[in-house]
Every structure is written in structure tokens, then in C-alpha cells.
Fold each of these.
Amino acid sequence: MSGKSRLALGLSLIFFMALAGLFFATKVWMPFMWGLLGPGVLGLFLGLYLSRHSVIEFFTMKSTKQGLNMGALIVIVITLLTLVNYLGAKYYKVFDLSGNGMNTLSDQTKALLSGLDSEMMLRFFYKNGADKVEDNKKQFRDLVKKYQDQSSKVQFEFVEMNEQAKLTQDYGASRGSGEAFLVYKENKNRIENYTEQDLTNAIIKVTRGEKKNIYFIEGHGERNTEIDKDESGMFGLKQLLEKNSYHVGQLSLAAQGGVPADAHAVMIIGPKQNFQPTEVKMLESYLQRGGAILLALENRNTAGLNGLLSRLGLELESFYVFNVYNTPMGQVVNAQSPTVAVNYSSTHAATKVFTANQMTVFNQPNAFKLLPLSETVKTEVLVKTPKSSVALKELDSTDYFGEPRVFNLAVEVKGKLSPDDKEFTVIAFSDADFMSNLLLYQNLNRDLALNSVAALVKESDLISISPKEPQATRLILSPPETSQFIKFVVLGLFLPTPLVFMMVSFFLWYRRRHA
């Protein structure tokens, strides 16, 4: 390579280095930079031209060709690895091997995320050095990752409160250990706990354009909704409805003179005194307008609603339903035990997510008998007991009558009372205790109650999500199997493997030593 070509290439390198330094310093392309780029390119081509013979000779050498082949192979491998890594980051599948799917979002959460039509931002405010802040950050980040895996519209960022004081003030964040907020279309909501249930409830609140109105009927000895320590009350159910972005109120038919026009659903839970004929007419008028009622009766008491039930094709049976249990002493019935239901409608929105190995728990329920109806009214049984269930006439006796069979505990009635009416929906239960403060969180009770309300107001995606508790996966072996397993693993694998490798190594060394 001649001195002139070295000079041209050296000057070209200087121009390129100056250009790179200026560009990375300013982060902006300026017109004078063309004055560095032009001479640099010109010097590069001039240097290559002056040393063209050396360049041609270099590329025709055998060692150069071998090096280029190796370089091309390396470039291909790196390109393939980069492509695989990119595809793996963009398109991937998460497998949940936990016993109860605790690492998988529920179908209801997935439905909410699929309905997002705008970006949803999650911000986690924290202070460096605060107590447990790192644990809280990790817990929330892991939770949000599940949502981001499901929807590209879920965005997330950490906000250090001291570094971004203005944003912290706008959100009203004050907890240094961690405080999370969700923003969607200018609607903002605080996330109290870092669980799927709380985050999904927050999404429900910010994505709902309006709050549906639900009224609890009062004035007939219905269950209390205001006292949290009343085991038979509905305070817990009311709280859950409010968390699901419903507006919940009380309604006295006698005082109001009817069901308000803004009512999306009314709930009649465990009435003890009879409804007056005028009140029954008010309920019928509400149904004729296309209303929705959740009715929960108990203790063989129809509270003066026999006529309405007959028009709905229902009759409340005058007995109690219990399960039969197999014991070493034979089959027994315990009138003090709860009644378990495991059979659900596989087509109804409220119950199709339930499986036969999931239970709902009722307390001394009655049962519904289905009556013949006109073609304008349809019934669908939502919840039934297992076949090993019996009927007791009185609670102080365990002598059941008839054979064990299936009983209807929840029924949906849908249709028109008259041809010119709007379509109504009624979901009737033969027990009110399953929604009480005492039993609400037992098994699927909460889900059944909230799903039924969601179906009544035509928002089937607003379905409660049961907390997912970690479950250990155990390998249970009988003593002989355990002994054989230990012998196979320890004596058959762990001990012989190093010895085999050592013997092979010694053999190879010996052959090479004496070759």
C-alpha cells in the first residue's frame, strides 16, 4: 500500500471520527456536517483506488477466502440468533403448570382486555429507599406482565416520586412504599391491592361509561345490606356490587309507588312478610317494561308472590333439600350440614364457566318445581343438586321421603308476560343464605351471585374473579415405590455417572499416551 493511499485513508478516518463525535454530542444533523461526510467518503474511495492492486491481491489469497467464509458463517449464525430472539420476544406462549391456574388470567379478565379500544396506562409511584418498595415493585410488575402478555394496549411505567414531583402531585400519590394508578381515556382509578381481582375491578370502573342501577327491595323483612357484622346480611354482596361499578340503592315499593325507570335490576332477598297485591302489580308492571329481578326465597316462604311465581312457571316446593353422605355406618342425612350443588347450566352466561368439580354451598334450601308455560316464556335451570340429594319435610327429622334425586335450586325465566310486552328476565333462587356475609366467600357462591347480577343487567363480562391460592404439586409414593425410586435415582444414576466418565477419560488418556 502506497503512502498516498495511507494518507487518504487516514484523513478519511479523521473526518468520520469527527462527524461521529459531533453527531452523538448534538443528537441533531446539522448542515455543516456534510462538509465532514463528503471529504471522508472521497478520501475512502481515493485510498481504495490508489491501493486497488493490494486490495485485489488480498481478496484473492486463500487465507482471505477462508476468513471470509468463516466471517459469512458467523454473520449468518448471528442473524439467525437475532431473528429467533426477536420472534421469541414478539410471539411467545406462556404455559401455566400451577395446580389451580394462578399464573393465568381468568376468561373474564381476558374479555375485558380484548374490549380495550384505547391505550391503558398503569403507573406505579414509589420512593427510593422506602420500606418494602422493591418487593412491591416486583409484585406489581409481575402482575402487569400477565396483562401485557394478553393485550398490547396495556402500558406500564415506574415513577420515582422525588424525581417527578409534579406528576406525583397530579395523581395524589403519597405512599413511598408503592402506590399504583390506572388511567384509561381520562378516567383514573387507584389500585388498592396488587392482585388480579383488584386490578380487574379497577379496569371495570374506568371502562364503564355508565353505572347500572341496582335496587334492593325493602319493607318485607328482607336481608340487611348495611351491617357488616350481621352474618345473615348482604353487606358483603353490596360491597362487591359497588366494586363492580354498580350503583346500589334501597327501594320501598310502597313509598316509591313502583320500580323507578332508571332501575336496571331489582333484588328481592329473603323476604319474610307478604307483599301487598298492589306491590305485586308493581313488580309485574316492571317486568312488562322489560325489567330484571333477582329473587331469593327461603324457608318455604313465598312472601305472597305465589301468583307471580305461577306466571313465571315456578312453584316453591314445601320441603328442604339435603345431600346424602356415605359413611361406614351407611348413608346418612345431616340437617345441620350445608347443601352442596355441583350441576350447572353449560349454556348460561352466569354458570357456563363453572365445572362439575366446583361447588356452591346453600343452607337448608327449598327447591323449584317447573310448571307448564306458554311459548312466550322460557325457563332454564342454572343450578341443581347432585343425584344423591333428598327432601326433608321438617328440619328436626332426618327421615326423607321419596328417592334420592336432582333438585332445582336456581332457575332463570325469560320472556313476555303478554305478547305486547318487552322481554323480562328473572333469576330465582330457593335459598338466600348462599349470598349472606357468612357464606358469600364459600367456594363459588360469590361468583354465582355476581354472575347472576351481571347476566340480568346484560354485562356478562363483569364476573367476579376468585382469588387464586398457590397449590403444591406433590409426588406421592407408597413406601416400596419410594424405596425403589431412591435406589434408581441415587444408585442407578447419581453414583455411577461420574465413575463412568472417569473411566472413559482414563481410557482415552491411556490410548493417547501409548499411541
Amino acid sequence: PFYPIPFGRRDSLTFANLSTTLANLPSPASNVTVLISVLGPKGLTFTDLVALSGGHTIGRSNCSSFQNRLYNSTTGISMQDSTLDESFAKNLYLTCPTNTTVNTTNLDIRTPNVFDNKYYVDLLKEQTLFTSDQSLYTDTRTRDIVKSFALNQSLFFQQFVLSMLKMGQLDV
């Protein structure tokens, strides 16, 4: 979707650093409660959270960002997350054969290079990489929003634009 970028914004005089960035971004292993506890105080709603997560319709992830859904973190032994589609998990095990691999994979398996609503279709089919993403569908507070975006790409695009504009005004 297209949206106008507001002009006249003041850029920061300092560069972002890793510790500040990590303190303001929830982990991909977070659930909806953690996501909204981090983003809610910034003025973002559940709808914003679901819409902005739709940005995961493009891009790639390192296996280490979702290994918690495939392996036991203590033993490293295969232990599939119950909210992960079995056939999807089998393919992920091929890409990420151990819990220490540095391989990457597409965030969206259906249309990895197209900005569309297939990310939400993937959520309905339990075929997403991150716990934070899948929890948007398993949590009753966000499930209906996920369903509506999966069924209506125009609605997703419209809300994505509104949420991006809102996020772009944070701390300006």
C-alpha cells in the first residue's frame, strides 16, 4: 500500500543503539500480553499490533529467532510447538537442522516477495515462524482481527497505513 510520509519531522541527534532498541522491541518469542505491554504504553492498540505485524509478509528470519518453536532451549532436542503445523515444521527442521544453525528462511512461505495478506492466511494455518506472530491468532483478543485481515486484503492495507502513520508519530 502507498501512504504519504509526513514532512517536517525532527530527526534524532543520537543514533539508536542495540540496548535501547531491544528494550523497545518485544522478542519474537513474546505472546500478545507481552507485545501489548511493550507497545500499548506507546499508544498502539491491538488492531495496530496485528496490522503492523503484517509487515512480516515480506522478509527473512534467522533460525535462531524461532528455534523456541522447534527445539527445547535447554537440551537442544527437537520439541515442536503445539501451535505449529506439522508439515510446516518438518520443512523448518530441514532448513534449521539444529538449534544452533545460522540458516535463514522466508517469513511468508506463500508469497515471500509480495506485500499482501497471505501472512494472515499463514496464521490461520499455523504456518508462521515466530511465537509472537502465531499468538496473534491463538489469543482471543486479536483472533478476530487476524481473521478479518486474512479475508480482506483491502482492510489490511487500509489499517496498515493508519497504523504505520500512527507509529511514525511516536516520540516525534
